[in-house]
Each structure stands twice: as structure tokens, then as C-alpha cells.
Amino acid sequence: MLPTNCLLAPGFFRRSLDEFKRFAMLGMPPVLYYSLLMFVVPSAATTLESIRVPMNPYHLLDFTNPETITLCKTMSDADMGGFSKVSLDQVPATASEPAHVRFYGNISIDLPPNRPHIQRSGYAAWRNKDRGPTLFGKSLWDVDPYMFLALRVKSDGRKYFVNVQTESIVYTDIHQHRLYSRTPGEWETVLLKWSDFVRTNHGEVVEPQSEMMTQKVRTLGIGLTDRVPGPFDLCIANMWATNRLQDGDTHREES
Predict the structure, then answer these.
(1) pLDDT tens track of the chain, all 255 residues?
(2) 145 has which bridge partners?
(3) What ranges make up the beta strands (E) of the chain?
(4) Can you tell me the distance from the alpha carbon of 103 to that of 72, in angstroms, rounded to the nearest whole number?
(5) How far apart are the C-alpha atoms of 15 and 10, rounded to whole Å?
(6) Sheet holding 72-76: strands in order across?
(7) Least C-beta-crowded within 10 Å: which of 119, 165, 206, 241?
């Protein structure tokens, strides 16, 4: 059997190496790690958190690396004929700012002509693309040993939401949390508890709620759905999982 081009690609081996590094952080071999995930019932007494709680950050999307933006894509109502504009651009570091991506554009709530089935418009978003495979299978983030998602951002104060997709049974489910800014126009670090995210589907809250599959996070992103016409501008330098309550000028948001 010959390996496919996908498996031979340099990114495949780099992702696999990243997995090995993560296992080393948790202090166990890969075989034992996956055996625990398959056969141990997740609970406070039996998950990997009870074995070792990592204190180092687990970087998920680090936009100080200019390659990270190539792994992301944008979306807006323009995909179905709307008129909102969205861009995601890399901004190099300066003496006063870190390297980051700028998520910006203009929201329009005008409905597309000749499409009567479309009743709402006015949104923009971005997320990472589905990642390629590794030696251990599909490339997913396991943030179960961590309590918070941390974001280093500079916001314009608009109503943004952080979106998380997992390997859930319902593929279109999205877990969301409001991204509040206490200092619009300034850089700040925001902590969001993974357990505070709300399960939604097509913009509606799903009942009954179910716990997020934090062992199998597929995508991360940010969206703007307030349907307020006009420009928006949000800068993101980094997104990571952490157990630390303090990391520079950090504030924690409650759901």
C-alpha cells in the first residue's frame, strides 16, 4: 500500500510532531493517552486533569506566526448574495503592537434581490479550516485538561461571539460565548470558561444543552451577528487554552 500525497505532505509530519510534544507535556505516552480517552469515563476523578493539570499555555491559533492566517477562512452573508464585506489580514509587529490578524469590514442588512427565501442578512465571521490528519488520526484539539480559552484582542466594542465546533453528532452545532471588551481600542486578554459556552445551531440556542466535547475541538473562530449596519474592526494576536487566571492584563468573563 502506498501512502497518499496528503500523508506525505510536510504538514502531516509537523502536526504529528506537535501531538508528540503535547503528550510529553501531559507526561504520558501516546498509546496510554488514547487508551484513557477510549476506555475511561470522563469525570473529575478519572480524566487526565486528575493525573496532571498543565500550567503551560496550549497555543491553538497563534497569529504572531504569519503562517497561521493561511489556515483560516472568512464567511459572510455575501456567500448567499448579501452585501456585507469581510476581510482577515495579517498585520506585522510594531514597537507598540504584537503581530496579529485584523478582522474587519462592513455589515449590511440589505437583502439580496430575487431571493425571497432569504429573510435575514448582516453577518460576518472567520474560523480556522479543518486541519489535516496526523499519525494518530484526525487532527483535533484536546483542551479537556484546561479550564479557560484565552484571547489576546483589541476590539472596537461591537457584539462579537467566539465560536467553537467539535466532533459532535450534529455537525452544524456551534458552541458560542460572547466576547466582551472592557477596554475597546486597547489590547487586553480575555478568559472564557469552556464550560460556559452555549450550544447553538443556525443561530438558535439548542435545548437541552449538552456538554461541549472539549477532547475533540475541530475549529475556533469569531463572528459578528448583531446586524447593526456599519464598519467593524477586531484585532486578534493569539488564542490559547490555559489554567492560569492571571496572564498580564487579564479579565475573566462570566456567562
Answers:
(1) 444 454 444 465 555 556 555 555 555 555 555 454 444 444 444 444 445 789 899 999 999 999 999 999 999 999 999 999 999 999 999 999 999 999 999 999 999 988 888 888 999 999 999 988 877 778 999 999 999 999 999 999 999 999 999 998 888 999 999 999 999 999 999 999 999 999 999 889 999 888 899 999 999 999 999 999 999 999 999 999 999 987 545 556 655
(2) none
(3) 58-62, 72-76, 85-91, 100-107, 124-128, 148-154, 160-166, 173-179, 187-193, 198-201, 204-205, 217-224, 230-242, 250-253
(4) 11
(5) 9
(6) 72-76, 124-128, 217-224, 160-166, 173-179, 198-201, 204-205
(7) 119
Q: Please state the length of the chain.
A: 255
User: Residue 89 class from Cβ within 10 Å (0-12 exposed, 13-18 middle, 19+ buried)?
Assistant: exposed
First to last CA, the chain: 51
